[in-house]
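During the no-cost extension, the postdoctoral fellow (Dr. R.K.) reprocessed legacy sequence entries with the updated structure-token encoder. One reprocessed record is reproduced below for audit purposes.
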Amino acid sequence: MSPKDALLEEAALGSVGIEQSHVVGIFAVTFLFTLCCGLFGWKGLTWTLLLAANLFLFGYLMKLTIDAGMNVPLGPDGEPLDADSSDDDDDDDEEDDGYKAPGIKSHQEKEAELPAIS
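Re-encoded structure tokens follow.
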């Protein structure tokens, strides 16, 4: 995280009245509570807590992404994708090497293979 982003994050937490140590404590308590629910066999509560944690983290990631001004698509590694790295085959349509898929014959080739009727 850049120093600018770290300062912005610290200011956002300070405006709400939360310190960095509070965030670590909340994470630890949530993790331990979820672990205890799993050990006690409370499947419904455990899955609910795991789902809520994932949704919260995803929402927080989206907030950070929007606040950073990154309005570009991200790849699976979290890095921005280049505009010219599309996987579309639209630009390949103009390139015709004379390739023809095997097993597909044109109408003229089919007529040439027909036996002559005598």
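The two ends are 84 Å apart (CA to CA). The mean pLDDT is 77. The remaining legacy entries will be reprocessed before the final report is submitted.
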